[in-house]
Description:
Elements: E1 6-13, E2 17-26, E3 29-36, E4 40-45, E5 54-60, E6 67-71, E7 80-84, E8 88-96, E9 104-113, E10 118-124, E11 132-137, E12 141-146, E13 149-156, E14 165-168, E15 173-176, E16 181-186, E17 202-205, E18 210-216, E19 222-227, E20 230-234, E21 240-245, E22 250-256, E23 268-273, E24 277-282, E25 285-291, E26 298-302, E27 311-315, E28 320-326, H1 344-363, E29 375-384, E30 398-406, E31 413-420, E32 428-432, E33 439-446, E34 458-465, E35 470-477, H2 480-483, E36 484-487, E37 495-501, H3 508-511, E38 522-527, E39 533-539, E40 544-549, H4 553-569, E41 575-577, H5 581-625, H6 631-679, H7 698-708, H8 712-723, H9 736-743
Antiparallel strand pairs: 1-28, 2-3, 3-4, 4-5, 6-7, 7-8, 8-9, 10-11, 11-12, 12-13, 14-15, 15-16, 16-17, 18-19, 19-20, 20-21, 22-23, 23-24, 24-25, 26-27, 27-28, 29-30, 30-33, 31-32, 31-34, 34-35, 36-38, 37-40, 37-41, 38-39, 39-40
Helix pairs in contact: 4-6, 5-6
Amino acid sequence: MSLFRLVEWVSQTIPNTSTILNASFFQDREQLVIGGENGQITISDPGFRDTNAHVLCTTETKYAILQMASDNFLPSMNNILAVLSPTKLTYYKVHFASPDETLASLDEIFSHSFSTSAWNMCVIPIEESTPQILVQSIDCKLSLFQGDQCVFSMVPLRALQPGPIGYCQTTQTLFVANNGFLAAIKFSLMSSGSQKKINYDWSFNLGDTAIQMKVTEGSKPTTIVLCRRHVSAFNATGSVVWQIRLEAVGMAMCLYRSLLINNTQFNRLIVSTSDDTLLIFQDNKLVWNCNAQMSPVALLVCSYNKSYENTITMMAPDGKVVVGYLGTEPNLYRLPEDKVIVNYAERMEEYKRMEQKIKESDAAGGAIKRKEGIQMKLSIGEIGKRTIEPNAASNAPYCNLIVEFSEVQNVSKLHINILSECASPSKQVILNVGTSKSTASIEIPFYVGSKKSPTSNKVTIAAHCAFTQLTVTKSIDLPFKVLFEESQIDRNAKYKVTIDTAGSVMPLNKLFSEFESENPQAIGFSLHGSDKTVSVFAANKSNRYRIQSEHISLLQITSRELVKRIAESAPGIEIGGVIPFEYMRETLDEIQELQTKKKEDSKKIDCRTKEVRAIEALSLNSCKTGNMGNLPSLDALFDKSYRELLDAMDSYNSLTAKIENQKASLNSLFQLAADLSKLSKVDTILNGSFWANTQQSLRDRLRWAVKTDRGNEMTMIEKLCEHSPKELPKIREEEEEEEQQVTA
């Protein structure tokens, strides 16, 4: 950021401002014309002798204003104001209502209407005639107007996205920067008004989105294009003259002439960037920069009176218009004078005293307390019987999660991200906080979705403040009843998990008291909106609980809920379980088999795609040569190949969905293994999320887990084997000769 700043002379804020223009309507000095999105046109006179904020006139139109231009567009009439709107091009004349020229009015002369919305325009100067206006529509078609006549209309360009346009009178060339390409067109080609697409003389790939274009006249005309990340200059033949790389995003650009140096060899330009900086260049040489204290989207260099010539006029996105000039005094600090004498002995004593205070403060625990930042609390709110959200399962209940924030002073907005397998109206929420409030809260409903069945009831909330760059994250488990409802038990389910306890089993109808079951030894649950069921059984003789289901993904969430309820009902009881490694191996085998089939389908898709393209090429060649006899055979072959291609793509998508479901089941088994290991007081890194949110293969993740989650015993053995050439104690190692004798 520059140390120098722009000194403000005149400023005013007009809401919904879209464009600004400097034009001379009287007294051989310039006035400022401001156009708005609401159709308002304001003509102000900053160089007025009494007040700088003097407004000549304000006119309301019915259309949003895109661009304005001022010139002698009509014969025998000077300084006509041309206003471009999405549907009209309107000409206005300025009439003064008072003899002292302090008040004026805008009178509409005539207008041209468009059938397609306009995008921008440029002025085409004509020797010994009135200037013309070239308008580009939103679909990249050009229309030329001269006064009240339309020369031609809707001439198409070879582009889809409109961009800046400019005209060079010296070479009579039109420049367009559409689709990220700068192209040159001879203006004489468009004089016929043909509806055929026009060929370019030359084109250049800018590699970025063009924002603004300026064209300079003279013996060496130059086209200067401002893009988001660079400024490029081109000569008449399309060669790059120079280029400037911007450190921030470019916002606006304007050219100007120096009042003291009359040298047309160089181009002088001002570029504004998104980091509130104005860059003043002489061609590609940076001669000055300053802090604009705003990010201008429009720039002008105007002379409003003889006292303030070549002042800079800027327009901000919020409608603030500032007229100022470059300051030469740094606004951050001033360098000390060279005559200041520093007493180094006193400075050293001062540093020693400060160091002693810091040591005493550290010994006492520190005098500076760490700022806690934003505090977040999660709690379960109302549980409703049925939600009306469109993405919810049929007859699914909802649960409101209350998110409470505290210590949010000076925080205006919080970005909340939601991570949960349960559905909600939105995964991203923006919470607006009042500036005078220190607390805020929001309720977010959760329910079972209609597209994806959840395998976990865990909800993670992350709140981020863009201003302070602070982020807080909390997690909570949704109630079990939000996901499941009571159903019939299934004793013949394929997948089982056993939970052992040191004490007698507890009645299941008491553990799950919110359900209406009266059976103390068996209870069944089904996921809302689906036929997925899970059953829980209690065995009094063996003091065990058994969980059975046809869906692996339901074992983990049910076992976790069961263990939590047992621990709450009987504190201190020992609980354990057997990790189902055979289910993991079975799921891994199925994933590998599906991935093999997916690779075969991918090869088949590539083969059929090449075959379809070859048939299309043969068909086009036959049409060009006129050999139409083999078209029925090619049509039949194309139909067969295309159907096989569609079948292979359907199979590929189906296998991809199956692989994702199997991966979700495997992640659930990993979390189940982590939960059962934790019951035995063994923490492991292999949980349900260590592979879920990565793009790595399972083999790579397991390698990382083995290196990361190793016990001290394995580390000791590894170090001993790598660095100890001695024999291990208490282990008899026989020599090779003795082994050979025993073998003989």
